[in-house]
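Quarterly update from the structural biology core.
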Amino acid sequence: MNSKYLSKSTIRENYEAYGEYFAKILQNILVVLQDKIHLSAQPTYKWRIKSFDSYYKKVLRKEADKITEFSSLICLTDMLGIRLICAFLEDINLAISQIKELFEIKEVEVKGTEKNFSEFGYESIHVLVKIPEECFPPKDERFENLMPLGGELVCEIQIRTILQDAWAEVEHELIYKTEFSPFDAPLRRKLAAINASLSLADITFQEIRDYQKKLQKELEERRQSFYSIADNLLDEKPKQALTDEPINRVSPFVQGTIDEMLLRAIEAHNAGNLEGAVQIYSKILDSIPPTEKTVISVIRKHRGMAFFSMNKLEDALEDFNTSIECDPKAFRTHYYKGIVLSIQKKYQEAIDSFTTSLEINEFQAHTHFRRALAYYEVNEFENSMNDLDAAIKLGMKQEEYKFLQEKLVQKFGMNM
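Predicted structure, tokenized:
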């Protein structure tokens, strides 16, 4: 070798001298990421400084002409690495957008897209960021001679799902670490099949996540409609339309499944197509074996709410009772049953239902409030006031309880 080149031992000494310095930089970047990155599920992080052997091989391959006595250290773009591991595919783009707000981006690369279906590379997003000044350790004379290529030190942030990371770890051990690429066709097909299975699992997990979000949105909308109708009926006001504006409905999850049918029923319910909703709920119930108590309880509860919205109170009550028989701990169903009984002016029975609901879950502001209303109707004003106080402490809004508070104040002759 020409005398102008540094020996491997000298390069190793130079490189490993920066270990503590690099570790501090990575730890500071991690603090920023952990504090500022917010995804649908909390991500986990790994970090690493490139091993010297890997570093040296890459330097020889790509930067051999820079290995001179004048170089303190040759910096590569992947010397410092942080891996952000998220739960769902949707989190990847969200993480990238948040990283772009935190750092100056030098490059974004999607690894694995060059592979065809019969190969076994798995996609991974690599974001190259400039290290901000605040992430560098305090000045240290030991590192004054740092001469990174391009005039700046960078950090590579890899963004993967949990399954992508699992594949990458195994792939690294089986293939890259051993410098082995299988030529045997059956073995290649097995690896490709595993890769495809993991990719499909990621997609399926995301579909389930999307379905859950859609369902929760529809359930919350339907629940608010139920409460609104209950208020109108209790106050003997004309029942208002469920919604004044058209709603953009969500697409089904998987055609023909109970989940998909349930979502369609709730969509129909929220859109005001109550007959259609009842028909779908009934179809689901016809397909469920009598031993599936939990599922029957849920569907009966939903159909009961649809009957309630149609002002078919006896049908609603029958469904709520059956739902409770299948799942006695379903505190919301006891609550819905209590509302129906209150509208029917069966106040003592309503109180019993609200009480059962609160025995299962005492932290329900609206259940305390509804029981307070029922107590007021049977002239148990002290119990009514106690329940109202509980509802207020649990965060009920003043505009919702003010009218009952004023009535109780008049009964007790108190000043507000």
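Residues 116-120, 236-255 have pLDDT under 50 and may be disordered.
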